[in-house]
Design goal:
235 residues, alpha/beta, Rossmann fold, Arc Repressor Mutant, subunit A, 2 domains, 5-stranded parallel β-sheet, two-stranded antiparallel ribbon
Length: 235
């Protein structure tokens, strides 16, 4: 039995997994409602455009998970997450963000989010995130995303874990450029390799680090100080 099938079976008796949407644009909420309602066993049971409305909706709709989406253009998303999670700490919150800033995931987790998903990966990653947070998993260990990079000596961070050294030099180069917000095409151009090769490197990196997306890679890279273009040798 697949993991999703098991999840469906577990929720048959208890009913659907109830989701509350938070976004200040009604059209975004409408799109998310259609998407999430198409996934069994999830069901959108409420919407809100502010933290105050979200907390009122929590009392009325009794959601199991909160999805807070963020276009990347407006400010204050961390405050919104913090206000919601402070008032409804028992309900896991997933941030869906269009931001490409390296610190976006870290700030969201510090504010109280349990998982972070990029909007461009929403079709494939958001459902996984909802399943995982509902089962009690977290996007990334807070001690990793909140820790400040340690000082470097000779281009390496002190206190690097063994996982840091599992990466090849080329994989570290790819990780550094991804952390700067480069697309696969831009990484390939900077390193003189094809996009296909970049994807292969990312697959290897994700497998070695036991992560699933670029946001998690960015958080890991910040923890280990692999963030500087000066550390990347470009042909």
């Amino acid at each position: 039995m697949s993991k999703t099938t098991e999840l469906d079976a577990l929720t048959d008796a208890a009913g659907p997994i109830r989701v509350l949407l938070v976004d200040d644009e009604a059209v975004i909420r409408a799109g998310l409602r259609v998407l999430i309602d198409s996934w069994s066993p999830f069901q959108v049971v409420g919407e809100a455009d502010t933290a105050a409305e979200a907390l009122a909706a929590v009392d009325a709709a009794q959601p199991n998970v909160i999805v807070c989406s963020h276009t990347g253009r407006s400010n204050g998303v961390s405050d919104t997450i913090r206000d919601i999670t402070k008032g409804a700490a028992h309900i896991p919150l997933v941030l869906l963000t269009a931001s490409r800033k390296p610190q976006a995931g870290s700030l969201a987790v510090q504010a109280g989010a349990k998982w972070v998903v990029s909007t461009k990966d929403a079709a494939t990653e958001l459902r996984k995130a909802l399943e995982k947070v509902h089962s009690g998993e977290k996007w990334f260990n807070e001690s990793v995303v909140t820790a400040r990079p340690e000082r470097k000596r000779n281009g390496r961070s002190h206190g690097d874990s063994e996982t840091n050294h599992w990466l090849t030099n080329r994989e570290r180069d790819v990780a550094a450029l991804v952390t700067q917000g480069c697309t696969n095409r831009q990484v390939g151009k900077r390193l003189g390799i094809t996009e296909v090769t970049v994807r292969h490197h990312l697959t290897s990196i994700f497998t070695k680090l036991r992560i699933t997306n670029r946001f998690q890679l960015i958080a890991w890279s910040y923890r280990h100080g692999i963030t500087s273009a000066s550390a990347v040798e470009v042909p």
